[in-house]
């Protein structure tokens, strides 16, 4: 039987829990759609919103099997290795999420929302989030250019830092 952990507010793992216990914690509001959850033995934390539908299907299959013991229950196919390994090859993709600064950039750009929408868009296309890296321009020329643009736009806008988000998926 699989066991799971969730991360509390301080990002400390809490658990282990069974799938039904996690579903109960979700119903009580202890686990929210934004809570990170991991299956024991896995390397990747995922948001509860991605995890819950799988667990609910698993839970409903096990409940229907308990009601009707003659019903055939098929085990899901083994998951592909998240890093490629011996089970298959992965292809990678890097997406750059740029942010704005200045008065307008600060008022109109929400960095968290920009990153989450980029991740959701790639997940919808079958890509799995692997890593996010801060991509700041640290050389002097770029810093001076940003300052010039900020002054020319009367402090209304300039580009700011960015994030590089790495995705992967199994090759077909």
Note the topology.
Layout: E1 4-7, E2 13-17, H1 19-28, E3 36-39, E4 46-47, H2 48-67, E5 90-101, H3 102-108, H4 111-124, E6 128-135, H5 140-152, E7 158-170
Antiparallel strand pairs: 1-2, 1-3, 3-4, 5-7, 6-7
Structure notes:
Helix content is 37%, strand content 28%. The strands form 2 sheets. It has a 4-stranded antiparallel beta sheet with strand order 2-1-3-4. The protein has a 3-stranded antiparallel beta sheet with strand order 5-7-6. The relative contact order is 0.13. It has 2 domains: 4-67, 2-Layer Sandwich (Dna Ligase, domain 1), CATH 3.30.1490; 90-170. The chain contains 5 helices and 7 strands; from the N terminus they run ββαββαβααβαβ. It has 172 residues and is of the alpha+beta class. It has helices spanning 19-28, 48-67, 102-108, 111-124, 140-152; strands at 4-7, 13-17, 36-39, 46-47, 90-101, 128-135, 158-170.
The count of domains is 2
Annotation field: number of helices: 5
Strand % is 25-35%
Largest sheet: 4 strands, antiparallel
Q: What is the molecular shape? A: elongated
Stretches with pLDDT under 50, minimum 5 residues: 60-87
Q: Which structural class do the helices and strands define?
A: alpha+beta
Q: What is the residue-averaged pLDDT?
A: 74
According to DSSP, the number of beta strands is 7
State the helical fraction. Answer: 25-40%
Integer-rounded radius of gyration? 21 Å
Distance N to C terminus: 30 Å
**Sequence of secondary-structure elements:** EEHEEHEHHEHE
Strand order of the largest sheet: 2-1-3-4
């Amino acid at each position: 039987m699989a066991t799971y952990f969730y991360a509390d507010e301080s990002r400390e793992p809490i658990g282990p829990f069974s799938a039904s216990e996690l579903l109960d914690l979700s119903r009580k509001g202890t686990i929210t759609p934004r809570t990170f959850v991991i299956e024991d033995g896995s390397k990747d934390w995922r948001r509860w919103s991605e995890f819950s539908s799988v667990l609910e299907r698993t839970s409903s299959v096990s409940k229907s099997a308990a009601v009707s013991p003659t019903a055939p229950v098929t085990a899901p196919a083994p998951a592909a290795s998240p890093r490629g390994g011996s089970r298959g090859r992965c292809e990678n993709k890097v997406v750059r999420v740029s942010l704005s600064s200045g008065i307008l950039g600060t008022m109109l750009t929400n960095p968290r929302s920009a990153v989450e929408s980029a991740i959701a868009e790639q997940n919808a296309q079958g890509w799995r989030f692997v890593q996010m890296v801060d991509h700041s321009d640290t050389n002097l020329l770029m810093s001076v250019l940003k300052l010039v643009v900020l002054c020319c736009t009367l402090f209304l806008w300039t580009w700011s830092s960015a994030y590089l988000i790495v995705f992967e998926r199994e090759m077909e």
